[in-house]
Design brief:
Largest sheet: none
Number of strands: 0
Number of helices: 13
Shape: extended
CATH superfamily of the domain at 3-107: MazG-like
CATH class of the domain at 3-107: Mainly Alpha
Strand content: under 5%
Distance between the termini: 51 Å
CATH architecture of the domain at 3-107: Orthogonal Bundle
């Protein structure tokens, strides 16, 4: 190892140790931060998800400085979780780091062992096989479709999980014969949702809303569309139109009537369409 590399490694470890010390101080009952002290692994879960999405957005749209900042925010969540666990003698950041390092070594036998691979696809196949063996997924129960789908539901964002569940179920034959059946299911769920809104409890209404959304995802799958990307695009267009509206008004949008807001909305929509056609 060269001297420059040794110095860089030392500086990296020092910076990580500084972060660990800062988090420990924030969690200290003696002079720590009341907000940080009140947190639990469960209360921090939304921030883990939020920071992960912000990292993705920065990679797609941000500058190097923004990517660095967002990665730091995500790293903070890892260190916080480890600090809270260490306080109750569950595990430490060292355990986390050693665990992932050993996992990478086990799942890359073509790098750290004597296994030969020809391409990235063989790497992926080896990874999945080793992963299944590690998790005991070679047992009969683990091979059940319901077991696999339950894992998707627990670990993936709802839209992504619904698409995965739908795809895996269809692969074993749990599928409509044609698109007409999918549309019929959508209209059935829409009617049931409307009926629930009219006469059912909030719990039933939410259940029927879930069924309706799942039916929409089936349509997306049949038409080879990505529901997550579709919704993200709609969110983006909504915000863009609001930006156009706010650029031409002299008062807060809340000061305008519904008719005035609708007129501004249509104006913004037309302007964005025109700009898109000129590109």
């Amino acid at each position: 190892m060269t001297k420059d590399k040794e110095q860089n490694n030392a500086e990296t470890l020092a910076a990580l140790q500084e972060l660990i010390d800062v988090v420990a101080k924030l969690r200290s009952p003696d002079g720590g931060c009341p907000w940080d002290l009140a947190q639990t692994p469960e209360t921090l879960t939304p921030y883990v998800i939020e920071e992960a999405y912000e990292v993705v957005d920065a990679i797609k749209n941000g500058t190097q400085a923004e990517i660095t900042e967002e990665l730091g925010d995500l790293l903070l969540q890892v260190v916080l979780q480890a600090q809270i666990a260490r306080e109750s003698s569950q595990f430490s950041l060292q355990d986390v780091a050693q665990g992932i390092a050993q996992k990478l070594i086990r799942r890359h036998p073509h790098v750290f062992g004597d296994v030969s691979v020809q391409n990235a696809e063989e790497v992926r196949q080896n990874w999945e096989q080793i992963k299944a063996e590690e998790k005991g997924e070679a047992s009969p129960d683990s091979q059940k479709l319901s077991t696999k789908l339950s894992r998707y539901n627990r670990t993936l964002p709802p839209l992504t999980a619904a698409m995965k569940i739908s795809q895996k179920a269809a692969a074993v034959g749990f599928e409509w014969e044609n698109i007409d059946g999918v549309w019929a299911k959508f209209h059935e769920e829409l009617q049931e949702f409307q009926q629930a809104l009219a006469a059912e409890t909030p719990e039933r209404q939410q259940a029927e809303l879930g069924d309706l959304l799942f039916a929409v995802i089936q349509l997306a799958r049949w038409y080879n569309l990505d529901p997550s990307a579709a919704l993200q695009g709609t969110n983006q267009r909504f915000v863009q139109r609001l930006q156009k509206m706010e650029a031409v008004v002299s008062r807060p949008l809340s000061d305008y009537s519904l008719d005035e807001l609708e007129a501004l909305w249509q104006q913004a929509k037309a302007q964005i369409a025109k700009e898109s056609n000129q590109e």
